[in-house]
Amino acid sequence: MFSTSTQKKHWTFTGETQITQNKKDTNHKYVNKHGGANLDDETKEKKYLTFTEERILGRHFEHVLREFCNVFQPPMPKYVMGTAMCYFKRFYVKHSVMDYHPKDIMLTCVYLASKVEEFNVSITQFVGNLKGDRDKFTNIILSFELMLMKKLHYHLTVHNPYRPLEGLIIDLKTRYKSIEKSRIEKIRKLAEDFLDKSLASNVSLVFAPSQIALAAILSSAENDKVSLDSYMSDVLLAGAAPEDVKKTVYQIKRIRYMVSTQEPVQKDQVGPIQRKLEHCRNQENNPDSEIYKRKLQEMLDDEDEIQSQKRMRIEEAEKKAEQELVLGVI
C-alpha cells in the first residue's frame, strides 16, 4: 500500500520548492567537490553546469526516456515507463548530471524498471532497440545497474497512478449511472493521456498515485464537457469531513496546475550544454574514460583475487579432510 510504502516515506516531497532546493544543493556540492570551492561565480558558471543547465538537460533526457519507451519492441506497458521515470527523477533529486551522465542513467532506469515490473526482456532484446554499439550499451547498463539500485537505497517498488485510474473507471461504471459507458471509455483515453503528460512533471514526487489518477479523471471529464461534481460529492467523498474534501480539491488543483504548466523542452540548448558537460563531468563515472576503465579493471581483478582465495581455501579444506580420513583409516 502507498500509505506504508518507501515511496511515501522517502521519496515524497512537499512540492516543487523542496525538489528545486535539493537539486540546487546537489549542483553546489558537486562544484565545490570538484575544484570550484574557491572560484568566483562567473568562473564557476563558465566551467561547470549551472542548476538551470542541469534542469534543461534532465528534462531533455526525460523526453528521450518517454520516446524510447513508446517505440520499444515488444510494446512496453505504461507502468514500466512510469517506474523508469520515477527512478530517473529520484536519482537526479540527489545526484548531479555532472556526476552521472543522464544518457547512461536513463537506459539503466528503463532496464531496471523492466525487471522490477516483470516485463521480461533479455539484455540482448533490450539493446536491440538501440542504435549504435550494442555491446557498449550492454556493458554500461549492466555495470551501472547495481550502482543505481544502491543510490535508490533499494527502494524499487513504485506505485504508479495507472492502477488507481483503472479502479476509478470501474467505480464510475458500477456506482455512477449518470454517464453512459461509452462516454466513460472516452474519459479513460483522455485520462491516460493526462497521466502520460504528467510523467514529464514532478507530480509523482509530490502526490499519492490515487490523487494523480483522480486529477486525470476530473481533468479529462471537464475537457469532454462532463461534470463529475455529483460523483465526487455523493459517491467518492460521501461522508468525508469538510476539511478532507477541501484538502482533496486543493491537491487536485495543484496536480492539474503542475501538469498543465510544464516548461517546454529546450532542444536548441541541449547540444551546447552536452558539449560543456564533457569538460566538467566526473570522469570516474564516464564509461569512455581511462580512469573509469582502469577502476573497472581493478574491481574485476579484486573479484578474481577473491574468487582465487576462495578456491584455495576450499582446496585446503578438502586436502585436510582427506588427510583426516586417511589417518582415521590407519
From TrEMBL:
Q: Where is the signal peptide?
A: none
Instruction: Please give the superkingdom of this protein's source.
Output: Eukaryota
Extract one GO cellular component term from the record: transcription factor TFIIK complex
- Report the InterPro entries cross-referenced here: Cyclin-like_dom (IPR013763), Cyclin-like_sf (IPR036915), Cyclin/Ssn8 (IPR043198), Cyclin_C_2 (IPR031658), Cyclin_N (IPR006671), CyclinH/Ccl1 (IPR027081)
Describe the location of the Cyclin-like domain by residue ranges. 63-150
Q: Name one GO biological process term.
A: regulation of transcription by RNA polymerase II
Q: Does the keyword Transcription regulation apply?
A: no
GO molecular function, a single term = cyclin-dependent protein serine/threonine kinase regulator activity
Cite the entry's keywords alphabetically: Cell cycle, Cyclin
* Gene3D superfamilies assigned: Cyclin-like (1.10.472.10)
Q: Which Pfam families match?
A: Cyclin_C_2 (PF16899), Cyclin_N (PF00134)
| Subunit-level organization | Associates primarily with CDK7 and MAT1 to form the CAK complex. CAK can further associate with the core-TFIIH to form the TFIIH basal transcription factor.
What does it do?
A: Regulates CDK7, the catalytic subunit of the CDK-activating kinase (CAK) enzymatic complex. CAK activates the cyclin-associated kinases CDK1, CDK2, CDK4 and CDK6 by threonine phosphorylation. CAK complexed to the core-TFIIH basal transcription factor activates RNA polymerase II by serine phosphorylation of the repetitive C-terminal domain (CTD) of its large subunit (POLR2A), allowing its escape from the promoter and elongation of the transcripts. Involved in cell cycle control and in RNA transcription by RNA polymerase II. Its expression and activity are constant throughout the cell cycle.
According to its UniProt record, which protein family does this protein belong to? Answer: Belongs to the cyclin family. Cyclin C subfamily.
The entry's protein name is Cyclin-H
